[in-house]
Structure prediction request, 358 residues.
Amino acid sequence: MFTGPRSRRLTTGLAACLAGVLACLVLLTACQTEKEHSAELFVFGTIVEVKVWGASQEQSGKAFSEIQQMFQGMHRDWHAWEPGLLVQINEAFASGDGVTANPEIAEMIRQSQWVEEKSGGLFNPAIGGLVALWGFHTSDYPIIGPPPSQADIDKILAQQPSSLDIRINAVQLTSDNPFVQLDFGGIAKGYAVDLAVARLRELGIGNAIVNAGGDLRAFGRHGDRPWRVAVRKPGGGTIGTVEVRGDEALFTSGNYERFREDAEERYPHILDPRTGWPVRDVASATVITGTGTLADAAATALIVAGMNDWTTVARALGLSQVLMIDDAGRVYLTPEMANRIQFDAGVDRVVVDRAPAP
Ligand code: ADP
Ligand code: MG
Prediction:
């Protein structure tokens, strides 16, 4: 059995090397009981555990190797700074050229546009230039050094990059704004999980969970009980568990693992597109909804919304099951989320009604 690195994030360089090796090893990582088969796969520097219940060993093994191949393709095509399709797309936008994407990227842009619009621009996957300016196009955290200059930040804000500047015609893309630089860091994991789930279903699998370090989607059941999953909390560990109903995704965006730091301060990696500065008053946002794509992007948007506005943005995105943890570790959640979580002992929380309809 493969006993490689188990840390949630590996460096991307290592990722590239391991991706090829893992393609061969994937079947070796599979472990099984009579009814349950699982494998540890790999995408975007993260280990993804796929568990299948009630399928044959042969059917599960085929699914695991197909999904690992899909993940390799995503890593290659969706990477924001390693040479690949997305980098070519950003180069074409910068020089005002049209460019051919692929159906997955076109769909991820469409979904991103929806979340950007509904969140009033708090989720904005076109701010790759800003993410790069802060040094977050790296896999080596923490980044040491002072923040960028306000003048450099202001320059990018004035360019007003937005995913809504992109026009999509089948797989042909053009951008009305040359400063659009796509960075799918806030949504790609969610879409990857959705594509993996779709493939599992196409292969006739009726019960499975695709879990990227606590960000997950599950469908069906684990034998005679539902899938039960943990909810992550800032700094490691969990705050409780949720029983998955039918087919759902649960994602937590954390603003505590990846950051820049200097002698004075920490600057976390989720940026407020309105100011160009990292968001500070939220430690994490957890969302349960139907798809990984929406759960992932929405969790990022809710972190940007902050402790004052998250209920309004949740409502605008059509979300009812949300949990926020502020920078002091206090837990706030919607009544619908309160009904879903079985909290660990000693977790204080405040149930907050959603904002009234606009
Ligand atoms: P994580 O996966 O680490 O929990 P997220 O899903 O929130 O966190 O993704 C954070 C990443 O999203 C950043 O590293 C960056 O690539 C990108 N990003 C940062 N700020 C925004 C934003 N306001 N809107 C969209 N994407 C963002
Ligand atoms: Mg996200």
